[in-house]
Design brief:
This protein is α+β, with helices and mostly antiparallel strands. It has four helices and eleven strands. The strands form two sheets. The chain has a seven-stranded antiparallel beta sheet, with helices on one face. Strands 6-11-8-9 form a four-stranded antiparallel beta sheet, with no helix packed on it.
């Protein structure tokens, strides 16, 4: 009886463990851009094989499907009230989004190709503290090709 109970407790514990809850990560089928982001920005929690969240800093990363239709939002797929950074020009590639303003690290992206501002004010893509691209309210901006790999943060 004790062995059966112990085996049952062990089985339930394994099923409820974090490793069991994230089979995509355990099997190594995460999108490469997501793997890069998790390594570059510790503290991320895998949501699916193409998205993760960083609860401590209010950041979300989504690998966008280039074949899917974009739902109506404030600025493309950057939700109303959010600021977004993308790995490619024209709001394409991998997307980081934040729901608050301030200086936000873009280390989770290998490069920043564009930014979107679905808030009031101005959003800047910066290399350190030097502004390389700006997007006014409800608009987006492409980062010049020569600066894409050197963008370190966005600021609003």
């Amino acid at each position: 009886m004790t062995r059966t109970l112990s085996a049952l407790v062990l089985a339930v514990g394994l099923v409820a463990s974090p490793l069991a809850a994230a089979p995509a990560h355990a099997q190594g089928v995460l999108d490469p851009a997501l793997e890069y982001a998790l390594a570059a920005s510790p503290g991320g929690v895998v949501v699916s094989d193409t998205s993760a969240v960083w609860p401590e800093i209010g950041m979300r990363l989504d690998v966008l499907d280039p074949t899917s239709a974009v739902a109506a939002r404030a600025v493309g797929d950057c939700a109303t009230g959010a600021i977004c950074a993308y790995s490619a020009a024209g709001q394409a590639g991998v997307k980081l989004s934040w729901s608050t303003c301030g200086s936000k690290s873009t280390a989770a992206l290998a490069s920043v190709g564009s930014i979107a501002n679905a808030r009031s004010g101005v959003l800047s893509a910066r290399q350190g503290t030097t502004v390389r691209a700006s997007a006014r309210s409800n608009s987006y901006a492409n980062v010049p090709v020569s600066y894409r790999s050197s963008i370190t943060n966005v600021f609003c």
